Amino acid sequence: MNQLQEDFNAPDTMKPWFMASFGLAIGTVILISGRLGDVYGIKNILLGGYVWTIIWSLLSGISYYDRQDGAAMYICCRAFQGAGMAFVLPNILGAAGRVFTPQTLRKKLVFGFIGLSAPLGGWLGVFMSGVIAVRTDRWDWNYYAFAIFAFVGCAITYISFPEIHVIRQDDGSRQHVDWMGGFLGITSLTLFNFSWNQAPVVGWQSAYIIVLLIIGFVMFFGFVYWELKVAKNPLIPPAILENPKLVATLSTIFLGWGAFGINLYHTYTMYQDFRHYSPFAAGAGLSPAPPMGLLAAISCSLLIGPRTVELILVGSMLAFTGASIILCTTTVHESYFRNTFGAWILGPFGMDWSFPAGSILLSEELPPHLQGMAGSLVSIMMNYGISIMLGVAGTIEVELLKQRPEDTYRAWRGAEYYAVGISGLATVIALVSGRKAIWAYITGKEVPMPEVYDEEKHELVRAPTKVSLASSPTPKSISSLES
Which chain regions cross the lipid bilayer (predicted)? Predict the structure, then answer.
């Protein structure tokens, strides 16, 4: 980001956009991309997403040659690149939800290792970008490399991905996509996110920021009304919106991953802007993430179940909170191993415990024809949380800098205190939501049965107390795919 800022002659306040634009696109387009996979075929949407990603990855690299308006072009290309990945992630989750039997160790391992891709892939990305920056001084090769890896993913998908049939309606016709709901939802989320991330650049006194923010709020409430009262085939099943436990789970993931986004961005600003690490050393600073991510993925797969899922979710939020506390108490002249090293021992547990817990919970409480939507909801909370909270943290930094322009470290720490606050709030929500199941587990009493989706009633109902999810019959739509 420092090289981008220098090459494009961009202001400091624009730097967060270099990272936030990608998350903005993922967090909004995912609202409809999972549903498109359910309707038009998961494999088809996956391949289309990869092709789109390849095109815009190449264009992101080509923006290197535009030094006059390159920053704007780069940010736009990154957003479209994120839109491509928005069609990939939820449909991979949807495929895993469709193919693997609920509550089996195999399904838990699959979701755990998909979650591992966050710390492992993220570390490889930032480490190799540091290598490219040091060895070539050409940041555009990061995006040419991105295009190459996307092409490999596309080829693997085309050759080896299973043909997952599209589940049709009772009369045999294709399911429908709620295009109006998609328009209202994506537009409202985009405007709201844009306002928060652009405000630190131009200031909250700019009239168009306030106008766009208000329009975003109005369209969001219009989206909720449309989904609950009007839509015949809503993007988000009303049973999800009306279920306090699932809403609490998604809110927890939103806040926890928002804190993670702040921590990731501020770790690198600490490394490079305050401690003046080289790009290579800054990439190496996240070296604890892959092994800790692997440990977290395996441990989560072995521990998670109907009796422990709420406990796993609370543990993940405690990991996010602990990492935030470590970072907000670090000082510029402390050694790497004394403080920031510990933050990235804990951080991967937040990622790799919250993601499988949320994904499995939603996957097993929604019917097979909505598995793509289940993946979308978790992915929306993760990526939109990262993007929007970066904008809020940026506003905090700008306001603190107005008070003491020379004290940039105070502004940095203020944003980290905010990360502590939202991750702590996520922990409280997870504790309150799962208090009965957690207390039952601690005392050894019978755990209340979770709610499951009744396909005949089209709503979430309480499962019979004598039937455990681990021994419940396998749905025909899943058993027919196991072979």
Answer: 16-33, 45-65, 71-97, 109-135, 141-159, 179-196, 208-226, 246-268, 280-304, 311-332, 344-362, 374-396, 416-434
